[in-house]
Amino acid sequence: MKLFDSHCHINDTVYDPDLPEVMDRADRNGVKAVMIAGVDRNTARRAIEIAAIYPRVFTAVGIHPHDAIQCGSQVIGELKQMAMENDCVKAWGETGLDFNRMFSPQPDQEACFSAQMAMAGELGLPLIFHERDSKGRFYEILKSDGPSSRRGVVHCFSGTKEEMFKYLDLGYHIGITGILTIQQRGKYLRQIAPAIPEDRLLIETDAPYLTPKPQKNKFRRNEPAFVKSVIERLAEIRETDPEVLAEKIYQNTCKLYGVSE
Question: Residue 105 sits in a domain of what CATH number?
Fold first, then answer.
């Protein structure tokens, strides 16, 4: 089985003591490629450092909506420079809207989101989107701001069926995490996941968060190797062969991020 963890944060400091072991476990579990998402300048730099060591690690640069209050033209310019100078940068993100905890005011989040989408368009990079409790505002901005040719993935999707189809109608991919494997929290997602077209599916860990079952019973920290549990559960609910589905999703991810299979 060949897997692509399309979104993780192994640039987090919790992996500093044992990153080589983490990457070795990923390889032994069939994870042949990894996308590390940036949430600010420091995590973007760290992701690029990791990619310099591991050849099948790719990175994204971006500002998370939690940090949007710090998102000015200088910051966007620094991220642009990183993207232009490092071949490992294959996407922009994660960026979007998060009205759950409101670490940054809504006007700052929306301005930062639009500025990052514009920069991704200038560089020709796909976007990694974050959305939480935006009450439709995320979709409104996506629909009105930018060309129909924009590519991207709504990562860690946990919305409604109606929202899912709206994103699909705009041409975006849907990222599925270990939430799918959790008995109560993932119940609704398991109901609607079979409706996602096969060529729009991506799988991810969002490590170190959202550890899937059965690993959740033993490990608090998620890691790329555990994405295997996501594909196995996804294949089960879609009633298909996990290896066949994994191969298709691997192709989807490579195509979206513009990397060789």
Answer: 3.20.20.140
